[in-house]
Write a structure and sequence with these properties.
This protein starts with a strand and ends in an 18-residue tail after the last helix. It folds into two domains: about 1-205, 2-enoyl-CoA Hydratase, Chain A, domain 1; about 210-260. By secondary structure, it is of the alpha/beta class. The protein contains ten helices and ten strands. Strands 1-2-3-4-5-7-10 form a seven-stranded mixed β-sheet, sandwiched between helices.
Length: about 280
Amino acid sequence: MATTAYETILVERQGRVGLITLNRPEHRNAYTPRMGAELREAFTELEADDEARVIVVTGAGRHFCAGADLSRGGSTFDRRQDDAERASDRDRLGEGPRPWEMRTPIIAAINGSAVGVGITLPMQWDIRIVARDAKLGFVFNRRGVIPEANSLWIVPRLAGVSSAMELLLTGRIFSGEEAVAMGLASRAVAADQVLPTAVAMARDIAENVAPLSAAITKGLIYRFLTEPDRDAAQALEGRTFWWMGRQADAREGVTAFLEKRPPEWKLSKHTDLPFEQ
């Protein structure tokens, strides 16, 4: 296992799983512009690597992410003060991919408290495993700003408008169990089981799911969130299914199942469909 230490995160390769740890435990992994830049860099590297089949993100210590670092006090959310640092990071690291456009599935292992940006970032990812008793909250309106990081778009789609209105308008704290009940997370487990559960799921995907199948499924799900024409969605889904059914992975998937052996996938997660998606 190779581990890369950044200033605010750790990146560890566990076979075909990339594990990213938000690594400011002395500050409850509070988010800084540098952490955001380093997270984008890690995503970029893992997305480009065909051997990285799944990404898991967790927090060091007892917390996932306590939101924005408030050490600047009242000027914390004045983005003008971040402009120079953000520009420097963009020049050095680039913009990075948007998570919902990545071909690599991303699992959030929310092992403890996650508020503010600590909860809106995982909303951009694909699967969320959360500690049952974790304290979660979209607390922005209680800090004089508004929910960000695309949360005003995705949270109503995950939880429904009624629940989203309550959570986003009140900024109240809620538990991991509530998050699952509202559809914001898929599983709530004991805190010490969050990371093992997420890694086990990641390994299952990495070993048993065709990389291109996962990439295309993820992409179409996000595309169809904004597709109002059900017939158009079905038509694209059908074209994609029939094309993939003629590829090597479809033959390998069936053959491996019949021969009771692990599949040996042939296609890269970066393989493009031969028609417009």
